[in-house]
Amino acid sequence: MPDLEELFENNRNWSRRIRESDPDFFHRLSSLQAPKFLWIGCSDSRVSANEILGLAPGEVFVHRNVANLVLHTDLNCLSVIQYAVEVLKVEHIIVCGHYGCGGVHAACGHTQLGLIDNWLRNIKDTYARHKKELEQLDNTAGRADRLCELNVLAQVQSVCHTTIVQNAWTGGRQLAVHGLIYRLSDGLLHDLAVRITAADQLETIYRMEEP
Ligand code: CO
Predict the structure, then answer these.
(1) Hey, CA dihedral for 166, 154, 129, 162, is it positive or negative?
(2) Which of 17, 46, 129, 195 is catalytic?
(3) Is residue 1's pLDDT more than 70?
(4) Residue 101 falls in the annotated catalytic set
(5) Would you say the pTM of this structure is higher than 0.85?
(6) Would you state the pLDDT for residue 35?
(7) Is 96 a catalytic residue?
(8) Long-range contacts: 186-189, Cβ < 8 Å, 24+?
(9) How far apart are CA 114 and CA 29, in angstroms?
(10) Percentage of residues in the chain with pLDDT exceeding 90?
(11) Between 90 and 31, whose confidence is greater?
(12) Burial (CB count within 10 angstroms: exposed 0-12, middle 13-18, buried 19+), residue 91
């Protein structure tokens, strides 16, 4: 397939480079994956989890979708969280957004883009909840940047509201849920200073008792 020839060449070079520096690498990795981190990030082609974090294959379990949303009805995202927490036993779940997120910008506007508008509607809910704060910002770029942050914070809560995460905590597991944001213009990650490690950090209505 000539269109993809460059990609195959890249792949062969990458595989060779790794085997030259660590001959056992792929053998080791094919028998076990034991990542400590689950990354929930945006599908944006510029926000690649392994590269940003400087992690090798095997070190981070990844779920990406448009605008890094964690919806309580999304079987795909919930299955990733369940597998990561219960089978791989990750110790950290990182929700990472990014400034300049096209999904968040679209949610700030009113132009129809198609099916995806229904997905991005969830970000409008976050906008509506924080309308007062957002509309005090006098420029649209600043408003969108703040909504990128608020969206991450909302998704961190959403991860913690799952029975998957709460059952891990009641079972005595060390599991921290973090909110980060990435800046495309300098390649740096920023901690939004939210770190949830127990159900008592959640609004009471979302706390679930042990089954
Ligand atoms: Co994005």
Answers:
(1) negative
(2) 46
(3) no
(4) yes
(5) yes
(6) 96
(7) no
(8) 187/52, 189/52, 189/96
(9) 40
(10) 94
(11) 90
(12) middle
